[in-house]
User: Which sequence fits this backbone?
């Protein structure tokens, strides 16, 4: 059996806040503590805020290129300027959507630049500069305070090709491998499984999202009872190299 | 808090087996019963077997077209013949991969035709003909036996564009809406959320997969403590129409 515990009552996060410490405190205040094997899932939004990855649009002077794209897709030119600065490659631009590859290698809408849940209405958040490093920092703090070795996943909600709706995906991983490799194991008829590498960090991100909530203050969750694949993995392991990607 | 309970000890499924009844029995045998609000998640493999969606390759005579494609992608021509019969449109054929749109509208590898966990080594399973109807049948049986109204999700593991590894997705839904529509609700600063439609049926499928297991006999799970979006939805609601899809 697996349980997913929302971490409630996390206050408005400001630059410099120590998320690892905050998670330990909040979990304690709801009568719980980190258990061996717990996995901590943290939403990108609070990680970005704690790391100061917030940009005030009033300070952005859009380039002519940004203005052109903005008029094509019907967005604020200043926001497009910020998106372009976060973008490594443009993947698709159509129907009001900008799908880009971020400098970290994530393929998502608007390079992860987002306006929701930012206090200042003229500001946007950027993805963490290195979300694997963000996950590392949170994991280390939890370890220092509690003595527990707890894998950490930083997540963001992404759209998908072919399917409607967003789901939560892992954009930062620390303390586990994000992929469970079943190749070589036997199926129930003792036949070797050909596939399957399961992207368990993405599945854990999805599972946690079911108790997290955009509108309420639940930007983190603990998953208890899952045996994470051991090893030193990164969210980067989840990125399909362009040369073996059929859809770029 | 949300809990995910594996349903263990499900025997080898044969054509005509009553999965709804079997799930009720097995859950009872592990000292549990369906609770109000429980969501039942069932792997496609046992649904297909119960519905007789198993094909013996020895009875398949591949067409010349299937033989040509088979030699291109390095697959068994008989298996390619079966894949083609399940295919509405070919989406990509490259590097040994066949990505197709199934007659139901799912975009996945090999039209969902799969060799793993089939007793007869010369046989393959097909996806259910109508996996929403499959979910309906299981839900109705559970309701008849227990009196509980329990949403049902049928799942399969799919690859994704841009990301490594497979995840579990919903291919059949009954008794709930697969998408939670947040549009119009306020964020924590009382600003209206622009996005977000969350594909919660896919997230529930991912969550369940964490306790299911390809090699062991855990082809089903119960998710307890999640408020599924009410209404009459179908997995088809998760399919992005081609005209608004940027990646076909």
Assistant:
């Amino acid at each position: 059996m697996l349980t997913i515990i929302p971490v409630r009552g996390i206050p408005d996060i400001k630059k410099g806040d120590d998320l690892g410490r905050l998670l330990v405190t909040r979990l304690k205040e709801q009568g719980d503590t980190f258990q061996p094997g717990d996995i901590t899932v943290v939403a990108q939004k609070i990680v970005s805020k704690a790391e100061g990855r917030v940009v005030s649009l009033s300070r952005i002077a859009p380039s002519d290129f940004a203005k052109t794209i903005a008029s094509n897709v019907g967005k604020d030119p200043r926001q497009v300027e910020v998106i372009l600065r976060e973008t490594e490659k443009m993947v698709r631009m159509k129907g009001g959507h900008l799908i880009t590859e971020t400098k970290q290698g994530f393929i998502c809408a608007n390079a992860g630049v987002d306006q929701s849940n930012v206090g200042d209405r003229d500001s946007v958040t950027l993805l963490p500069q290195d979300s694997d490093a963000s996950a590392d920092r949170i994991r280390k703090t939890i370890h220092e305070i509690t003595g527990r070795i707890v894998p950490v996943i930083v997540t963001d909600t992404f759209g998908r090709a072919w399917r409607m709706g967003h789901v939560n995906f892992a954009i930062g991983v620390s303390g586990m491998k994000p992929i469970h490799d079943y190749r070589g194991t036997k199926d129930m008829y003792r036949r070797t499984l050909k596939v399957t590498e399961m992207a368990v960090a993405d599945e854990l991100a999805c599972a946690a999202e079911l108790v997290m909530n955009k509108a309420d203050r639940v930007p983190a969750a603990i998953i208890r009872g899952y045996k994470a694949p051991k090893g030193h993995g990164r969210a980067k392991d989840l990125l399909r190299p362009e040369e073996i990607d059929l859809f770029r």
In short: Chain B is about 25% helix and 25% strand. The longest strand of chain B covers residues 87-94.
